[in-house]
Structures are given as C-alpha cells and as structure tokens.
Amino acid sequence: MANNQNEISFLEFLPVSLFGSIMGLSGLAFSWEWAEKIWSLNKLPGEIIGASAIFFFIVLSIAYLLKLVKYPALVKAEFNNPVSVSFFGTITISLLLIPGIILPYSQNLAIAIWVIGALLMGLFAWMVLRKWLDHQQEPTNALPVWIIPIVGTLDVPIVGSRLPITGIHEICLVFFSIGIIFTVILLPVIFSRLMFQAPMPVAIQPTLLILVGPLALAFSGYLSLTGILDTTASIFYYADLFILLLFGSKIIQIATCCPFRVGWWAIGFPLVAITIASFRYAVNRHSSIYQIIPAILLTISTAVILFLLIQTFYKLFTNQLYLVNPVAEKETRVLEPGVKATA
Fold it and tell me: For the chain, what percent of residues have pLDDT higher than 90?
C-alpha cells in the first residue's frame, strides 16, 4: 500500500477543530484552580496547564493564519461545510476562556481579549444560525458539534462576570439568554437525529460527550449571574449529571474504537465544564458525596485530556496525524444541504 503521509502538508491538514484543545486545557486549568481553592492543593498544576493553553493557542493561531494565507480555498471549504463550520466556534470560545488565565497577571489584557472574544462569539453565532436557516439542512448532519457555535454564547459569563467592565452583568445576561434559548432548541434537534436517523459513525461517537457541555455551562453561568444556588441551578446540575451518565461510556471509545481523530478534542471542554460545575456545587453543599463527585471528574477529565495530548503529539511526530484514509473519510463524511444520501 502506498504511503499517504507525504501527500499533504501539516498546514493543508490543520483542522480548525484542533482549537478544541485550547478549550480543554483552559477549562482544566480552571478545574485545578478550584481544586486548589477547596482542597488547598498546590497551584503549580493549574498554572502549568494554563500556561500551556496560552502557548498552544499562540502556536495554533499562527499556524492557522499561515494556512489561511497559503491555502485559502481549504479554509473556505472548511467554513462552508455544514458540520466543520461549527468548529470555528472553538477559536472564539478560546478567546473567552484564556482571559481567565491571564486575569491574575494582567487585568487590562484579559479585558481586551475577552471583549474581542465576546464580539466574535456574538457575530459567529448569528452568522452560523442564519446560514442554517437560509439553507435546508440534512437531518443526519445534526451532530453534537452543532452545539458549539450557538450554545457557545454560554461561555461568555464564565470569565466575563469577573471582569470590571461597566454593564458587564447585562452583557453577560444577553449572551446567557441566547445560549439558554438555543440549548432548548438544539438539544431536541440533536436527540431527534440520534433517535430517528441512522447511527452516527463509530469514529465520531465520542463527540456525543459534547452534549454534557450546555447544561454545565448553564449552571455555572446562572450561578455567576445570580450568586445563589437555588432550585433552577440544581435542576441544571442534576440534569447534566444524568446526561454525563448517559454518554459517559463514550470516553472508553477514544482508546478502543478506531485510530485517533483530532475532532475528539471537542470532548475535553464538556468534561471540564461539568467538573467545574461540580466544584461550584460542592462549595454550597456539605455532604461528603459532593466532594467525591468533583474528585472523580477531575481525575477523569485530567486523564482524558492527557491522553488526547499524548496521542496528538505522538501522531504528529510519527507523521500519522494527517494520513489520508479514504475509508475513514467516507465513514465520517457529511452531506451538503440539498444533497441526498445514496445507498
């Protein structure tokens, strides 16, 4: 069999979905920060993870800009794809999370980056939603990644509520409202696809864990905006734990189902989002079970992100990360709007 590894360059391959790694690392840094606060752990793990998130964001941003300059048609194709367009939201969400890492060191820089991220998040959510509404979508393309561009607005209050910006509460409330409404709209659409359409290809089934993210973010955003752990907040949290139990077994598939795929980075942030939500819930509850849950989730999310990181670098340095696999591409392809599936 011919070796395909030299058929394309790394820049040609570089998918925007790789920015999901920044989201995962940023969220993991926040998780360890909460662990340090509650359990008086060493700050070093969180600081190292946070610094890594910033470093990789800079590297990936430069690389993707080079791809845009050198291969604009590939970037355009990625943006026009009805599914991969959602992953562009990982860039804007990264811009909303990184300020939380920078904030203790430079408030002004954190505010500047967050404002850019919030503006881009709002614009991107509007653009993608209009794109979906203006063209009839294939039901089989209603995958969990659809959550990212619209429900990603729930990420705005996570760091934004901590920033000393005039009117920040109302700004966060606007984005939170958008995220909540479209969580209510999109989750039934995606569950309907899962129940009534052909099963998702095995290679992308781990991304079902993305569905854990919205209610975890809704819980944290609600708590940040109201400052109280009431019945509504508890409903968000417990419902999300149930969704985690529903799809948690998909974590095992990233090590067993098929060769590593970069798109699996999308599961990192939902895992840390429910971990952070569990820490925040534990602060307001005194039973020991509420300490055990975040401990378990922190262990799992750290192990998963470490696995994804090791796999990414191993595949990269062994020239396996961007091998062309026609069978895999066929099994994970999506349909363009208006194009019907064939047997």
Answer: 68
Structure confidence at residue 286 (pLDDT) = 81
Query: How high is the pLDDT of residue 323?
Result: 53
- DSSP assignment letter at 303: H
Closest listed residue to residue 226, CA positions, set 186, 284, 303, 266:
284
Q: Is 218 helix (H, G, I), strand (E, B) or coil?
A: helix
In a domain, 97, yes or no: yes
Decide if pLDDT at 328 tops 50: no
How does 153-162 read in b/e, with b if 16+ C-beta sit within 10 Å?
Answer: bbbbbbbbbb
Q: Is 334 helix (H, G, I), strand (E, B) or coil?
A: coil
In the block, residue with structure tokens 């378990």: 296
CATH classification of the domain holding 244: 1.50.10.150
Assess whether pLDDT exceeds 80 at residue 5. Answer: no
For residue 343, is it within any domain? no
Please check whether residue 255 is in contact with residue 238, taking contact to mean a CB–CB distance below 8 angstroms: no
Measured between alpha carbons, how far is 155 from 18 in angstroms, rounded to an integer?
18
Domain count, the chain: 1
Give the pLDDT of residue 203: 81
Residue with tokens 């800009």: 65
Whole-number Å distance between alpha carbons of 19 and 26: 11
